[in-house]
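Record type: monomer structure entry
Structure origin: computed from sequence
Chain ID: A
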Amino acid sequence: MSALKRVQQWATFARIWHIYDATWQNPFDSAQLLKKYLMGLYKPIYHPMNDCGDHVILINSADIALPGNEWQKRVYFHHTGYPGGASWTLAWDLHTKDPTMIMRKAVYNGMDGNLQRRYTMQRLHIFPDANVPNELLGNVSNQIRQIRPVPKRLDHYSEEEVQTAPKVIDYPKDYVVR
């Protein structure tokens, strides 16, 4: 085998490092997107019994957005294995205890039916904020695009942008805000 073909084969089977920003993203939609990269579904060499997935660094998992009133309604089940060890935790409570757990559970459950999902999850590196060790950031070569755009917060607009924005209503001068 020539040196060029050998390098081409190494590049085909190499694990790529991706980074994904979970700010304002639905964890269940994000899980379906991340599953493709973790399992290697987008690669032409993919086979269900072939472990060709990539590494994914997920940042800002503390800023995820669940749809509707899922924070109050969604319940996560855990059992210790001992009698009476069953517990149900609401999503907001689980998120305050561990801001990475909802994303971890969403991605794990998104790979339903995959026999290798325990080993595949070892390539998912979740961080609650943007503080990622430099050893991991040095490996990143691709950024996964967010599913939905992140809106700009009101306090991030400059005073000039606020003044030039069209007004919806002009309040009367004697209007009192309570």
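Annotation 1: The chain has a mean pLDDT of 93.
Annotation 2: The first helix runs from residue 3 to 13.
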